[in-house]
Structure formats: structure tokens, C-alpha cells
Amino acid sequence: MDTQAHGKPVVVIVGGGVSGAGVAYYLAQSGLVAPGHLIVFEPRRKLGAGLAYDTPDPAHRINVPSIKMSLLPDDPEHFQRWVDASDAIAGDEDARSFLGHLFPRRAVFGDYVNAMVQPLVDSGAITHLARKVSDVRRRNNRWLVSDEEGRRVEADILVLATSHPSPTPPASLARALGHHPRFVADPTRPDALDVIGADDRVLVVGNGLTSADVIASLDLRGHRGAITAISRRGLRSRGHARTPQDPYGDFTTAPAKTALELLKKIRSTIREAEAGGASWHGVIDQVRGQGHLLWRALPVSERRRIVRHLRPYWDVHRFRIAPQVEEVGDRAIAAGRLEILAASIESVRVDGEKIDCVLRVSRSQNRIERLFDAVVVTTGPGHRAIFESQDWIARLAEAGYLALEPTGLGLDCTMTSQALGPTGEIAPSFYISGPLARGTFGELMGLPQVAEHAVFVAGQVAKEIERMGDLTRLDNSAA
Questions:
Q1: What is the tens place of the pLDDT at every residue in 20-71?
Q2: What are the distances in angstroms from CA 213 to CA 209, 329, 343, 472?
Q3: How many CB atoms lie within 10 A of CB 142?
Q4: For residue 383, what are the CA distances in angstroms to 42, 148, 164, 390, 406?
């Protein structure tokens, strides 16, 4: 593919979900990239959805009210207005929840982002290559990007905007159930739950948002069997506040220097909020909004402590489930069909098609033996498996252009989102956008932070394009 024309820089973005599409959108708006020189590799047929918003499952809903979802950080209600103008929830009678807030199906948000980006694709400002990347190499001070069909694109600037890998099944499960017909190691795959019968006894490994989605999906399919959901702490994702609440508290005036200090500050602020008739929701929203500054103030050792000890508690409060999904779980618990356990898997044995599991109850010597018909893994993104997820990413690491961030939450990068190699050297003209930069920036697993980071990365890339232009002009004048 000829990308040398005009003598202007070529930008390649790998990944066309919200992160990648957002960077492309803002770069295209800047006018700094020539037509044909802003290229997004995304195998899905449309840009903007990615893994999170490409789901066709009607049980999957955004877990943030639509008035807080937007590709435009300065216009938080933009998505809401688009929904109204396009009649995007027609026929979805359950979309509206308490307080009148909308929680549309997740695919609707993917359609919205695509509606923003597609006109730029149609005009030629953005080139969408619906192919998978198979290799990326540094050659002659440029990035050589090859796709699965053997075609190549040379880029001056590379942006990695893929998401975290799928859940990594516990080793004991993978060994025992790898070939079992009703072992669902990755529930994000289309129709992954089709193998589960209406009366099957199901073990769900994990209790976060994906677990809640799986339970809601099974319910919508008419599943009637018993479900046991386990996690080490038995924490279930929380729901939204029943009354409107603004962010509450101040965590940046004197930012905490240790994990314990931050935990004490959050707890005392929650008590203060509750004394005033509010709840913890506004406090967590404030921590989330100030998360970037809070994270930067903590030494790496304290960040690791948070990831090791506090992250599960943070996740269940920060990643709240949509009211419609919460209601499904509440009904199942009340009916005795859903049991939430603080437990882990001690052993697994296959007896025909039955799955015999011994569960070890957390913080006790108790064991529970159960027979299941199906097992679904919902343990969340495999943060540390990024190099095993795609060979070309592993090869970039071997070549010294990528490294895991010290907390293990993603890829290491600078505060300008430039990729770092294992020795701490900045990879030339290589940026990380979205959740894979979470370890550096602290909170990049949802909106509005993902959209804000896309704006930030686009701005950094734009500055580099301008610097490249200045150098070219300098070289020309010298000649």
C-alpha cells in the first residue's frame, strides 16, 4: 500500500474500538494527517464498537447512565442526544430505569461511536482496514505493519489501541476441562453460552461485571438451573445510587502517599457523606475522577499494594452493574437459583459429562463438593497475558519496544503515553491508547476516562506530526 505520497507522516492505529476510533476521530479533526495517511486496523466490519460494544446479546447493557457516556469529554450528554435523535432504543422497553436514566444495550453505544467515525471513513480522512495485524517491525526508522493477508503498510507513527486479552482460566480448570463441551473459557465469544441447557447446573468463576452479564444472558435465554458464582472474596458488583449524587470529597489537595492512607481517606469521606444523607457512590465517583492524579502521587510499591489487596473492592464499587442486570441477579438470589460464594476451586474431576468440583471456602478449612453441568470463566481481563495474546505483540516486546508495567495492569508507557521497553527506553513514535495504559494512568477501564485518554493521545500524536513537519522544513531550508 503506497503511503509515501505527499511526504506527510503516516499514522497507523491498531485496534478500532472506542480507544482507537477515538484517537482516529480526533486526529482526523485536526487536519494534520493527509487523506490515506490515517489508517486503522480493525477486523470488525465497523469502527467504534470493539469487544465491549460489539455484543449482539440484548441482555448486555451499558453500566453507566447514557447521560454520562460520550465520545466527546467536553459534551457528556452527546450520546444521550444521539439516542434521542436517532430513536436508538425503539422497541427496548426496559432501557429506562429508575430516575428516568437510560441504560441502552451495549451495541447501541457501539453504533453511536461508529456514527461519529464512519463519515470520516467515507470521506477518506480515515482508512479502515478490516484485517488483523500479523506482524509489526521497526525498519528504516518507520514501522512496517503486516496484516494476515500478507499486505504491508509503512507508518511513521504507531498507536496500539487494542484491549486487554480475554479471561485466563485457572490452570486447574484449563487442564481438567479443556475439551469439555460445556466449558466456556471465554464468554465474550459470540454464542459462547449456546452450549448451556435450560436446566444445567452452572458454575460461574468470577463475580464481576462479566459474571453479571452471563447470569443476565442465561436468564434471557430461559435458563432455570442452579447457578453458583464464586470468587475469592465473594464480592458482587454493586448497583447505582437510587438518588442523584454529585462527586463528593477532595483527594488531591493532599494526595495520599500510601495505599493505607488512601483507604482511610476514602472510608472517612464515605462516613462524612453518609452523615449528610448521601451514600458511597459520590465518593467513589470523585476518586475515579481524580484517579489519575491520585495514582501519580503513589510510589510504585504502593500502587502494587493497591492492585494486590484493594483492587477487588475498588472494582465492585467502581464498575457498577446496570439496574436491569442487577434486578436479574437479585431475582435469582431471592428464588434460590443463584448462590454467591467466597471460594476457590480446589479440584476438578470429569465424570462423563458431569463436572465434579471441590470448592474451598475462603478463610476457612471448609470444603464444598458440587456437581455441575457447565462451567463459565468470568475472571476479567488477563492483564498479564498481553504478550501471549498475539504473537506480534510478543515479538515487539522481544525486540525491546514493549514491556509490562510494574503493577501488571498493562503495558508500560510514559506520562505522554509513549511505549517503554524493558530497559525503560522510549520506543520511537509508538503510543499506547486506552486500557493497556491503565498501569501508568490509573483509571482507563471505562468512560469518560477512555474518551479523555483518546483525546490526550491524539494530542500527543499531533504534536509529533508537527515536530516532524518542522524537521522536514528545516532539512529543506538547509538543502
A1: 999 999 999 999 999 999 999 999 999 999 888 988 899 999 988 999 899 9
A2: 6, 10, 20, 52
A3: 21
A4: 21, 24, 6, 13, 12
**For residue range 291-300, what is the model confidence (pLDDT) as tens digits?**
889 999 999 9
Q: Are 425 and 151 in contact (CB under 8 A)?
A: no
C-alpha–C-alpha distance, residues 187 and 51, integer Å: 12
Instruction: Read off the DSSP letter of residue 182.
Output: T
Residue 3 has pLDDT above 60, yes or no: no
* Cβ neighbour number for residue 364 with a 10 Å cutoff: 9
CA distance 65 to 102: 6
| DSSP 8-class letter at 356 | E
Q: Which of 55, 49, 59 shows the shortest CA–CA distance to 112?
A: 49
Residue 99 has pLDDT above 80, yes or no: no
Residue recorded with cell 465473594: 234
Name the pairing type of β-strands 38-41 and 127-129: parallel
Q: Where are the alpha helices (DSSP H) in 142-208?
A: 171-177
CA distances from 290 to 329, 331, 411 (A): 31, 35, 21
